[in-house]
Write a structure and sequence with these properties.
Layout (H helix, E strand, L loop, with lengths): L7 H8 L5 E2 L2 H10 L3 E6 L8 H15 L3 E6 L21 H18 L10 E4 L1 H4 L4 H7 L6 H6 L1 H8 L6 H4 L1 H16 L3 E5 L3 H15 L4 E5 L12 E2 L2 E2 L9 H9 L6 H8 L4 H8 L5 H18 L1 H15 L10 E4 L1 H4 L3 E2 H7 L6 H9 L3 E3 L2 E2 L6 E2 L8 E5 L3 E7 L1
Parallel strand pairs: 2-3, 2-5, 3-4, 5-6, 9-15
Antiparallel strand pairs: 1-6, 7-8, 10-13, 11-12, 11-14, 14-15
Helix pairs in contact: 10-11, 12-15, 12-16, 13-14, 13-15, 15-16, 18-19
């Protein structure tokens, strides 16, 4: 596509790799170049913190604000009661009102660090779809909204089709989710003048539904834009580590472990991640991403410092970099660190993390190793270990693994 954007926001989206698809590139770009556009992304309150998988779309909202527009973060206080079936193989566990509220409180702490809220024209709005969903009358909703939806069309959406093709149950409750999300866009347009919904490319069907519904009911022109589903160069979903989710709240994942996650980025992903997750100029991101050999490690440290500064502040980033230097560069990982060397035969198809912790001398027994994991005291490559059933295979040991018990006890595991 050789479209040259007029608006700063669309230029950023295209140059930095945020853009997967748009319902009307030119129409949206014209709007963005002429007026302040309110735009939203929805977040269901399924956990007490957002994780790294959410960070790309939070950066999209941050860039939207930086280029003169109005972000809306929509908390799914209503839709979380139903659960989004998109590309899931099973139904989400349903949460109670108190848990949903606690989760929303935790998530809002992250947004407040990256987006500016207030009453101004480009200040962000924090909204909750319970505002309009909780008081809905079911019969009125069926008559006024449900009649605009074709079941045939809903069944054709990939998120639904994939579940049905695998003969996995899709409850009527979940099937309603896409109608509720479409209704969110209608209400945001009606109440707050919202003109754009953004989200990951798995949300395309839901976004198009909302645009179609708003045209039918209000006869208003609105837009949709999606970001690519982010995978690492080796095909894994972004934000998943062997130790579990990479949380954005500091009380669920220490800033040092967050910093280390970015420092461990693969060479092939460094330039792309600099563009998506930092505000360094695109040319500088390209230059750093093209470094080779040991020099690419400097680019990874810059990436880790920049992202950690954005989320946890410069002081936390500096402290993390200093700790890493002490542990990894000043003899801590070399001969001073206990090393367990395993043969390929010992590992076989995989060895349990409990065995590794015990054999590396970080726990006296398997029972103690499991307790260490349960109490969040164990880490692998500085990411928390949350599952005592984690298996480590030969591919995981292509490079030495660092195991930690608490903050000061470390060991290396390597293939001999």
């Amino acid at each position: 596509m050789t479209y040259h954007p007029k608006s700063d926001f669309m230029a950023v989206m295209m140059q930095r790799g945020f853009l997967a698809d748009c319902t009307d590139y030119q129409g949206l770009d014209d709007k963005l170049s002429k007026e302040t556009v309110p735009a939203y992304i929805g977040y269901d309150a399924t956990a007490k913190s957002l994780h790294v998988g959410h960070l790309m779309n939070i950066m999209v909202l941050r860039w939207l604000q930086k280029t003169g527009h109005k972000p809306i973060t929509l908390m799914g206080g209503g839709t979380t009661k139903v659960g989004d079936p998109s590309f899931r193989s099973d139904e989400r566990p349903l949460l109670g009102p108190e848990q949903i509220e606690a989760n929303i409180d935790g998530m809002q702490q992250v947004f407040a660090k990256l987006i500016s809220y207030g009453p101004g024209e480009t200040d962000a709005l924090m909204l909750n779809n319970a505002e309009w969903l909780d008081g809905l009358n079911y019969l009125d909703f069926l008559r006024d909204i449900g009649r605009h939806f074709s079941v045939n069309r809903m069944l054709s959406f990939e998120s639904v089709k994939s579940r049905l093709d695998r003969e996995q149950s899709l409850s009527f409750l979940e099937f309603n989710y896409m109608i509720l999300q479409a209704y969110d866009f209608l209400e945001l347009n009606r109440r707050y003048g919202c003109l754009l919904q953004m989200g990951g490319s798995d949300q395309w069907g839901n976004i198009v539904n909302g645009i179609d519904l708003t045209r039918r009911v209000l006869d208003n022109e609105i837009y949709g834009l999606t970001t690519p589903l982010l995978t690492t160069s080796d095909g894994r979903k972004m934000g998943k580590s062997q130790g579990g989710a990479i949380w954005l709240n500091g009380d669920m994942l220490a800033p040092y472990a967050f910093w280390q996650f970015w420092r461990n980025t693969t060479d092939a992903d460094t330039g792309r991640f600099l563009k998506l997750f930092t505000e360094l100029p695109v040319d500088e991101c390209d230059r750093l991403g093209a470094l080779a050999g040991s020099e690419i490690n400097e680019a990874k440290i810059i990436l880790a410092n920049e992202v950690t500064t954005l989320l946890h502040g410069a002081e936390a980033a500096e402290a993390a970099a200093a700790t890493a230097k002490e542990v990894f560069e000043m003899g801590g990982v070399g001969e001073d660190l206990p090393t367990l060397t395993l043969t390929a035969a010992e590992i076989g198809d995989g060895i349990s993390i409990v065995q590794l912790i015990t054999r590396a001398g970080l726990a006296a027994s398997g029972k103690e190793a499991k307790r260490l994991i349960a109490e969040n005291g164990a880490r692998m490559n500085d990411a928390p270990l949350t599952d005592a059933g984690t298996m480590v295979g030969p591919a995981d040991l292509a490079q030495p693994i660092k195991l930690s018990a608490g903050k000061k006890r470390h060991a290396l595991v390597q293939l001999g």
